[in-house]
């Protein structure tokens, strides 16, 4: 069982560490700009660090959910690879955002694309699972039947 989820578990722990790293950046930015809680706004330099961390946190639960669903129902290696790329894109997003708001866009589009891929793999994996569990036969067999009907 653990062999089937070890890569997903690794990416999850890496993602948690990345979130901790983003939070540390906010703590340091608070010290640098002297912004004490509960204040969340200040000079643009502080606001960008703060928003970058909040935005990454917002997508963290969505990312972890589809990472595990696609990894369990579609393919562990494919999901873990997308997951690693997603974390790299988020790292890039965070640092570009702290430099200038416009710079965040490219890594944001990359991370959104990777999230769509993980959602797509999750749906494919679940479709395959429900087809074989409740209709009988795998997706390959179903597609084979469909193809023979279209062009016999
Ligand atoms: C919401 C729920 C699910 C999304 C892609 C895939 C699934 C994103 C939009 C961001 C940011 C940052 C900023 C990682 C067209 C549907 C999704 C999903 C969104 N999309 N925005 C934004 C807030 O700096 O502006 O990080 N991330 C996304 O995905 C695309 C959206």
Properties at a glance:
152 residues; mainly alpha; binds ligand JUQ; Four Helix Bundle (Hemerythrin (Met), subunit A)
How would you portray this structure in words?
Helix content is about 80%, strand content about 0%. It is an all-alpha fold. The chain has one domain: Membrane associated eicosanoid/glutathione metabolism-like domain (Four Helix Bundle (Hemerythrin (Met), subunit A), Up-down Bundle), CATH 1.20.120. Helix 1 (about 5-35) runs parallel beside helix 3 (about 75-100) and helix 2 packs parallel to helix 4 (about 105-135). The longest helix has about 30 residues, at about 105-135. The radius of gyration is 20 Å and the shape is elongated. The structure holds ligand JUQ. Ligand JUQ binds near residues 55, 59, 62, 104 and 108. Ligand JUQ binds near residues 111, 112 and 116.
Could you provide a short overview of the structure?
The protein is mainly alpha-helical and 152 residues long.
Please outline the helices and strands.
Blueprint: H1 6-33, H2 44-73, H3 76-99, H4 105-135, H5 139-150
This protein binds ligand JUQ.
């Amino acid at each position: 069982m653990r062999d089937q989820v070890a890569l997903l578990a690794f990416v999850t722990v890496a993602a948690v560490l990345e979130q901790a790293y983003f939070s540390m950046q906010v703590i340091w930015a608070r010290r640098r700009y002297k912004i004490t809680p509960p204040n969340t706004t200040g000079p643009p330099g502080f606001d960008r660090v703060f928003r970058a961390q909040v935005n990454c946190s917002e997508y963290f639960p969505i990312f972890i959910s589809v990472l595990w669903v696609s990894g369990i129902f579609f393919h562990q290696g494919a999901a873990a690879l997308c997951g690693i790329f997603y974390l790299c894109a988020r790292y890039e997003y965070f640092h570009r955002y702290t430099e200038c708001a416009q710079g965040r866009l490219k890594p944001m589009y990359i991370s959104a694309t990777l999230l769509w891929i993980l959602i797509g793999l999750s749906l494919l994996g679940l479709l395959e699972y429900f087809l074989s569990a409740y209709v009988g036969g795998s997706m390959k067999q179903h597609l084979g039947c469909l193809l023979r009907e279209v062009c016999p």
